[in-house]
Amino acid sequence: MEQHIQHGIAIYSDIGGIMNIFFGFEVDENISEDDKWNIIFVKRSNLLSRCDWTQLPDSGLSFLKRLEWQTYRDALRSIQDDFPTPDDVIFPPEPAEE
Known about the structure:
Helices cover 38% and strands 18% of the residues. By secondary structure, the chain is α+β, with helices and mostly antiparallel strands. Strands 1-2-3 form a 3-stranded antiparallel beta sheet, with helices on one face. Strand 1 and strand 2 form a beta hairpin. The longest helix is centred in the middle third of the chain and has 18 residues, at 33-50.
């Protein structure tokens, strides 16, 4: 099993597949561009799921704060369109607390 680390994420892979993904490390740059995009999509999915609650009508957030979170979530969803390569990706900052 090989370990590759990049963009704060460690992945452990066996022949041809990602087995587990963990956040918090530096990554080897020898992984493919497709694997880098996959790592980014996993991180993006994690960030989106952590803020799903912000879009619920009973979240307790004001309309403007919900709109800020919606904009943040839209930016996360458009990462592949906004950055030409995975090495260029910069995740948007979360909106500030109310």
